[in-house]
Write a structure and sequence with these properties.
The complex is a heterodimer.
Chain A: H1 7-11, H2 17-27, H3 31-49, H4 58-70, E1 74-76, E2 94-98, E3 105-109, H5 117-122, E4 128-132, E5 137-141, E6 147-151, E7 161-169, E8 172-179, E9 183-186, E10 196-203, E11 216-219
Parallel strand pairs in A: 1-4
Antiparallel strand pairs in A: 2-3, 4-5, 5-6, 6-9, 7-8, 7-10, 10-11
Chain B: H1 11-19, H2 23-45, H3 48-65, H4 76-95, H5 114-132, H6 136-146, H7 152-159, H8 163-181
Helix pairs in contact in B: 1-2, 2-3, 2-4, 3-4, 6-8, 7-8
The chains are: A alpha+beta, B mainly alpha.
Chain lengths: 220, 199
């Protein structure tokens, strides 16, 4: 299948989950698809504005604002050092692609079942949001422990390097995904209350135990 | 209840404030886009409670990740509508609630002031006019996908056409709509944003 042919379907949200995931991965490396998608997204926006529909109840506004108020980010101090002990399994790899329109940064999981995970986590009304002290990143964790990392300001990883996410289990860092640039990364490992999540810069493809200093950490 | 001191700010400036956890900016964005967003979600879902869920989840997603929005690259309102649409089609597929009514069947848009209502109506008429100029098969594919929540492969089955035919109808239809709507396409006739990519 030619992935270029999926741009219109993607803009209309008309792809199956596995196609959506493959297309997002393709976007990362295809400038012409990104350009075409921008145009089609504008058309989709016009269709959206023309949708019509009834007035929302006043209670919806209050509910949204109340929930937003309830989850002001918890500030967590930046930790300087991470122990670097052993580690076992290599989990599914999550890459991050900052696609075109800024926020259109979808975490790309190679696990196709997780194709839509990032949006689900970010939009879960019961998720908790934790911010690092310097405000560089937010960790969003759902009640079931699914987690996404929203990275705001960070230089793209140099050639031959990846940013690697770690979840500390009993003080031992476990691999939880890779990304290359700011955006939203889905963690491949669940995060329990009180666990620490850290990010380090590592060789391409990641390593089994962190070798670099943590760039930032957040406690769930 | 609109917060007056924010009224002069652009949507994109409001998103920047939302990124700094400014609740009044979130309220102002909701006042500007929430009605349209709900109308879109309702159009897809045909259920008030589900439409509210889709809008709530999209605005909370905005609250949590506004910091990574880059205003030079997109209209904030287009971004919000895309978040809402994605949530709505995911919900409609989960709930198996697809509807297929044409755009003319939709109720009148929901908005606050008479001025806004007039703008939205104009916008809507322009889009309807453009859709009406598409060949029937292209319009059908786009409406069933965008407003009905059907995937391409579901449409191929439903319409008894090869998948490639559906894909090419969507592509041709969107391309033609883009031409027909021209420079007025984004955000009700305001200036076209120049978008560049540096991922």
């Amino acid at each position: 299948m030619d992935l270029h042919d999926l741009t219109a379907g993607y803009a209309l949200d008309a792809l199956d989950p596995d196609e959506r995931a493959r297309y997002e991965e393709h976007l990362a490396s295809c400038e012409s698809c990104r350009e075409e998608l921008q145009d089609f997204w504008q058309v989709a926006g016009a269709l959206g504005r023309a949708a019509g529909g009834p007035t929302p109840p006043a209670s919806l506004r209050e509910r949204i604002l109340e929930q937003a108020r309830d989850e002001r980010p918890n500030v967590v101090p930046l930790r300087r050092r991470v122990a670097a002990p052993v580690l076992t399994s290599a989990a599914a790899i999550a890459a991050v692609v900052a696609v075109g329109l800024g926020i259109w940064s979808f975490g790309l999981s190679r696990d196709l079942d997780d194709a839509n995970s990032v949006l689900e986590v970010l939009s879960d009304p019961n998720a908790r949001v934790h911010e690092t002290a310097d405000g560089e990143a937010n960790l969003v964790v759902t009640p079931t422990g699914r987690a996404a990392l929203v990275v705001r300001r960070l230089a793209p990883a140099p050639r031959g390097k990846d940013y690697e996410i770690w979840v500390f289990e009993n003080g031992v860092p476990q691999r939880a995904g890779l990304f290359e640039r700011p955006g939203v990364a889905m963690l491949s490992r669940r995060v329990a209350r009180g666990q620490t999540v850290a990010v380090t810069l590592e060789p391409d493809g990641g390593v089994d135990a962190p070798t670099g200093d943590p760039l930032f950490t957040a406690a769930a | 209840m609109r917060s007056r001191d924010l009224a002069h700010l652009s949507d994109e400036a409001l998103v920047a404030l939302v990124a700094r956890s400014d609740e009044s900016a979130l309220a102002e964005l909701y006042d500007r886009v929430g009605g349209t967003a709900y109308g879109l979600a309702y159009r897809v879902l045909r259920d008030e409670a589900l439409a509210e869920d889709a809008v709530q989840e999209a605005f909370l997603g905005l609250w949590r990740s506004a910091g990574s929005f880059i205003p030079e690259r997109a209209k904030a309102s287009t971004w919000i509508l895309t978040l809402v649409h994605r949530r709505a089609v995911d919900l409609v597929r989960r709930e198996q609630r697809r509807r297929t009514e044409p755009i003319e069947g939709a109720p009148e848009p929901a908005v606050g002031s008479a001025e806004e209502a007039a703008w939205l109506r104009l916008d809507r008429e322009r889009v309807q006019g453009a859709l009406a100029q598409l060949p029937d098969q292209q319009r059908e594919a786009i409406e069933l996908a965008y407003y009905g929540g059907y995937t391409q492969s579901e449409l191929a089955e439903r319409l008894g056409q090869p998948l490639g035919t559906i894909k090419s109808r969507m592509f041709s239809g969107l391309t033609r709509l883009r031409e027909l709507l021209g420079s007025d396409i984004d955000d009700g006739g305001t200036e076209r944003t120049t978008w560049t990519y540096t991922t």
